[in-house]
Prior knowledge:
This protein is mostly helical. It has one domain (about 35-155): 2-Layer Sandwich (Glycoprotein, Type 4 Pilin). Helix content is about 45%, strand content about 5%. It has 2 helices and 3 strands, in the order H-H-E-E-E. The protein has a 3-stranded antiparallel β-sheet with strand order 1-2-3, covered by helices on one side. The chain is rod-shaped. The termini are far apart.
Amino acid sequence: MSYTMMKNSFKKIMRQGAQLGQAGFTLMEMLIVIALIGLMGSFVAVKVMDRFDKAKVDSTKIQMKQLGVILEDFRRVCGFYPTTDQGLDALAKKPDGRPCPNYEPEGFVKKVPNDAWDRPFTYMSDGNKYQLKSLGRDGQEGGEGYDKDITSDELD
């Protein structure tokens, strides 16, 4: 088959396809499909980010509960909670000040954990009671939603 014959056959097939309405998608149709895909993607992204933020709040609450158990163990051994001045570092190394003769030589934790946003917990104690606090997603006092402060007093 020669080049001219192939060229004529191709033109004939293209004319028949165009006559049957099989010319392909228009630019407008393609833009509508792309817009719909983008819209669906944005809904999915919002849902994923919402779940991610909720998971961080839940993770911080779990860490606070675990620190509460460790603080209770410290109190059982030493007879008091670490004071605000001693801070949570008293769980990792023997605190100065008030004596604790039965302090665990390797400490109660290797390293004091941060909250889910990788910021240190705020710790306040007079030795008889304590409060742990995370400043939430925004790292600022107060807030609403996922930016709201999380305190050990509010845990279930």
